[in-house]
Amino acid sequence: MSDLPVVRRTVVKHAVSSRILPEGGRSLRVYLPPGYQETVSYPVVYCQDGEDFFNFGRIATISQRMILEEDWEPFVVVGVDVDKKLRTSEYMPGGSRHEAYTGFFSEEMLPDVEKHFSVRRTPEERLLAGDSLGASACLSLALKRPDLFTRVLSLSGAYYDASVDQADREPILAGLRVWMSVGLQETAFETDRGTFDFVALNRVMKRLLSAKGAEIVYSERDGEHKWGFWQQLLPEALSAFLGPSPDL
Q1: What's residue 4's pLDDT?
Q2: Which CATH superfamily groups domain 10-242?
Q3: I want to staple 60 with a disulfide (CB 3.0 to 4.6 A). Which of 31, 131, 202, 225 is the partner?
C-alpha cells in the first residue's frame, strides 16, 4: 500500500536564484502532500533551518502522518537551507546579512515558490516556523512584512535584545498569531554569543507581544535546547495552525 503514489512521501529539491544574496541563490527542500495536484492550492509552512527541520525535526514524516491518519487538510512544507557559518548573521535582527536574507525571503524566495508550487498566497495560509535563532528570523519577517506573514511557530526562540527592540518598536500587533514553547532545562544554554536563559527570553517576548495585541499560545515544557525536544512538539505546534480545529 505504501508504494502507491497517493501515499508516498514526496520531498523535492528546488533552487532559487537571487540578486540580493551575495552567493546568488539558495536551496530549498519541499514536501508535497499525498495526492498533490497543481489544480489545488495548499496552505504552506516555510521553515528556517530547512535541512534540520526535515532531517532532525522529521517534519515531512510528521506532516504525512497527520494528513493521512488525522484527517488534516493537505499542506506543503518549504524548508529554506542555511549555511551554518552565516546563520547568526542572517537570522538575528541587526546581523550583517539579516536585511539581505529577509529581503531574499520575502521578495525572491516567496514569489518563486508561489510560481512553481501550488501554495496559497494569503498571510493567513502561510506559516513561518523556526527554532532558536530561526524563530527570531520568523518573528522578524512577520514584523517587517505583516502584509505577507502573520503566523509564527516558535520553538525555543532566541529572542535577544535586538529582537525585543524590533518588537517593541511596533505600536500594535493585533494581526499576529504566535505559537511559542520553550524547554524548562534551557535556563543556561551556551551559544556563540554567550550563555542565555531561554526561558526568560521567551517569557519577555511573550509578554511584549501579548501587550501589543498579538494572539499567543505559550507553553513551558520539560526539554532541552535540541531537536529531540522540538520534534516532539511539532505535531501540537502544527495543529494550532493546520489541524482540524486550529487554535490560531
Answers
A1: 44
A2: Alpha/Beta hydrolase fold, catalytic domain (3.40.50.1820)
A3: 31
DSSP-derived secondary structure for the chain: -TTSTTTS-EEEEEEEE-SSSTTSEEEEEEEE-TT--TTS-B-EEEESSHHHHHHTS-HHHHHHHHHHHS-PPP-EEEEE---TTTHHHHHSTT-TTHHHHHHHIIIIIHHHHHHHS-B--SGGGEEEEEETHHHHHHHHHHHH-TTT--EEEEES----HHHHHHHHT-S--TT-EEEEEEETT-TTEEETTEEE-HHHHHHHHHHHHHHTT-EEEEEEES--SSHHHHHHHHHHHHHHHHSSS---
| Domain residue spans of the chain | 10-242
Q: Give the pLDDT score at 193.
A: 85
Q: Residue 160 is which amino acid? A: Y
Sequential DSSP letters for 159-213: --HHHHHHHHT-S--TT-EEEEEEETT-TTEEETTEEE-HHHHHHHHHHHHHHTT
pTM of the entire predicted model = 0.96
As to burial, measured by CB atoms within 10 angstroms (0-12 exposed, 13-18 middle, 19+ buried), residue 226 is: middle
The pLDDT value given to residue 243: 94
Please check whether residue 172 is in contact with residue 146, taking contact to mean a CB–CB distance below 8 angstroms.
no
Q: What is the pLDDT of residue 224?
A: 97
| Ranges under pLDDT 70 in the chain | 1-7
pLDDT the model gives residue 6: 53
Cα 248 from Cα 242, distance rounded (Å): 9
